[in-house]
Amino acid sequence: MTENLMEAMVSETKQKKPTDKKQRIVTVAAELFAEKGYANTSTSEIAKKAEVAEGTIFRHFQTKENLLLSILVPFLKEALPPMAEDVFSKVLNRYTDSPESFFHALITNRYAFFIENKEYFQVFIKELVYNEQIRNEVIPIFQRTVLMQIETAIQTFQEKGKITKTIPSETLTRTAFSIMFGFFLTHLFFQNVDGESNIEEKINQLVHLIMNGMKTSV
User: Fold this and answer.
1) Looking at residue 122, which CATH number applies to its domain?
2) Interior CA angle at 173 toward 167 and 174, to 5°?
């Protein structure tokens, strides 16, 4: 699966026949977002290509943000489980003996994914904070996939004596995820402040921080 979310969603929407105006708007919007980017695509452009009045877009979706979410949320609900399984299986299978290498590879991989899809996640995460319906739809799937995969990896390293067993795997999972997610959010919303310099060094520091809380007793 492509790492560009909108390109993947274009493929998904093209499989659905645009039998009504609403679906045609969604299909065209996904194509234009993939081609030009979310910020550079106007609702007037979408309306023109979809051959509808611009007011029709607002009648169905109210805002351009809602239009993006109408594409993004259903796709994530369907695609998140196989995406998570694919990423974690590749990373964990490659770094079975080193939790440091595992977390470094995982953070590097997902950092690239977040930055590749930065403008979409900026809208999605802001909406996640304020929209209870979206939280109720997405978070349970996220917990069953991403958090479960991280915990499985941690339990594997615990069994090998690479990570402490004195702290429950669930606690270690949520702590590690909080650290990683905070790192991703910083780069999504405060990139102009932090910049892209020394990203490898920052990831190394992040892994060191995570592992300090997981070390086995000497």
Assistant:
1) 1.10.357
2) 105
The per-residue pLDDT for 16 is 58
Determine the pLDDT at residue 195: 53
Secondary structure in 3-state letters for 41-79 = CCHHHHHHHHCCCHHHHHHHHCCHHHHHHHHHHHHHHHH
For the stretch 108-132, what's the b/e string if a residue is b when 16 or more beta carbons lie within 10 angstroms of its beta carbon? eebbebbeebeebbbbbeebbeebe
97 and 124 inside one domain: yes
Tokens standing for 74? Answer: 């259903």
Please state the pTM of the whole predicted model. Answer: 0.81
For residues 174 and 177, what is the distance between their CA atoms, to the nearest angstrom?
5
The upper half-sphere exposure of residue 198, i.e. CA atoms within 13 Å in the direction of its Cβ, equals: 6
Quote the CA–CA distance of 111 and 34 in Å, as a whole number.
20
Domain annotation covers residue 121:
yes
CATH of the domain at 31: 1.10.10.60
The stretches in the chain having pLDDT less than 70 are 1-3, 9, 11-19, 191-197, 217-218
- The values of phi and psi at residue 72, to 5°, are -75, -45
The 10s digit of each residue's pLDDT in 106-162 is: 999 889 888 888 888 888 888 888 888 888 888 888 888 899 999 999 999 999 999
Residue 52 structural domain? 5-71
